[in-house]
Amino acid sequence: MAASPGVTGTPQARPAGWLPTRWSRLNGPQRIAGVDLARGLAVIGMVAAHLLWIDDFDFADASTWIGVVDGRSSILFATLAGVSIGLVTGGTSPLAPPEMRVARGRLAVRAGMLWLIGIWLIATGVPVYVILPAYALLFLIALPLVTLGARSLFLLAGALALVMPFVQVLLDSLPFWSTAWGELVSVAIGWHYPFPVWIAFVLAGLGAARAGILTLRVQLWLLAAGSALAVAGYGLDAASGATASEIVRFGGAVWTAAPHSSGLLEVIGSGGFALAVIGLCLLACRTILTWVALPVRAVGAMPLTAYTAQLVIWAIAATVILGNPGDLRGFRDLEPFWPIILSLVIGCTAWALLIGRGPLEWLVDRVARLLVRRR
């Protein structure tokens, strides 16, 4: 049936139904399914790293494979931050200056809100290194670089990845960090995820967005190049066979792929791993797997809400059951991983299909638009 004419005499489209509108929010052209899938995996990986007893990853021992989430999930999360920044600032081509000023302003507001949410989560007493303060700082550092093209971004990311692990060892050795003020600053800036090194991951993600992550060529390149870097980083780590004392003697914490070390081999290996996962997720979502992975994509469509929710659930449950939200061993012994993950997956899927945008994502975006308006 033809659309009925409006008061002006021009045809008006029939309004979309409530459920189709929500379905389109998750599966429409405004979302990139592969990026949502990668984000969902990053969030689930970080929850696993928080809540599971994890042995060191050993490729030859399948019982240790869950160890792949340790350190790599947060690096994947940071790399996807760069992808997100790239997408909202123009995708393959940086926005024109007037639009770019608005985009930068809104990203700065979002960074501020992420920092506030992160500090609030730290105040709950949950014994994890909350990534949001570092995430916020990385957003701000990346803002001056959003006008660069893909080639420049990848070259800069590569240069920082090779140089900054050496600088980081010197920074970590400063006496300042052992003072009361140093401990406070460390928490405030998320020094567990140190920005001098981690900005390389953000710039690599930003470069991927500028290169055009919707194209098959770029997706295949991300998978191939990322896999090669991962093999190089982890392979060199395994081949060196350095013990902890030898690592200290030969260059501090630089020559290592240990999780959360910010060592050179971790930056190469885990940075490559992140790019490969993003490429693989984008390729998978070209197939029927995109529908199989819909619940994980729902988590990835509201990563701030999902990440915050798991820590809030943890804080409440540990306080009620154990009387102490900081009892990591006691809480892990309760085996909370699957109940929390299933709650997140089911809750995010239901919210995405029945309501729409994640509540914290909506709040952050709303505040950014109110404070930074288009002229």
Explain this structure.
With 375 residues, the protein is an all-alpha fold. It has 17 helices and no strands. The protein has helices spanning 18-27, 33-51, 72-88, 97-123, 132-142, 150-172, 180-189, 195-211, 216-240, 244-249, 264-284, 289-292, 294-301, 303-322, 328-333, 337-354, 359-371. Helix 3 (72-88) crosses helix 11 and helix 9 packs antiparallel against helix 11. The longest helix is centred in the first third of the chain and has 27 residues, at 97-123. It is globular and about 50 Å long. The two termini are 41 Å apart. Mean pLDDT is 89; it is low at 1-15 and 243-250.
**Number of strand elements:** 0
Please state the average pLDDT score: 89
Main sheet characteristics: none
Structural class: mainly alpha
Share of residues in strands: under 5%
Tally the helices: what do you get? 17
Q: Calculate the terminal CA-CA distance, rounded to whole Å.
A: 41 Å
The percent range for helix content is 55-70%
**Uncertain spans:** 1-15, 243-250
Write the element-wise H/E pattern from the N-terminal end onward.
Answer: HHHHHHHHHHHHHHHHH
Radius of gyration: 21 Å
What is the global morphology? globular
Entry keywords:
375 residues; globular; 68% helix; 17 helices; single chain
Helices and strands in order:
Layout: H1 18-27, H2 33-51, H3 72-88, H4 97-123, H5 132-142, H6 150-172, H7 180-189, H8 195-211, H9 216-240, H10 244-249, H11 264-284, H12 289-292, H13 294-301, H14 303-322, H15 328-333, H16 337-354, H17 359-371
Question: How would you briefly describe this protein structure?
Answer:
The chain is mainly alpha-helical. The protein has helices spanning 18-27, 33-51, 72-88, 97-123, 132-142, 150-172, 180-189, 195-211, 216-240, 244-249, 264-284, 289-292, 294-301, 303-322, 328-333, 337-354, 359-371. Helices cover 68% and strands 0% of the residues.
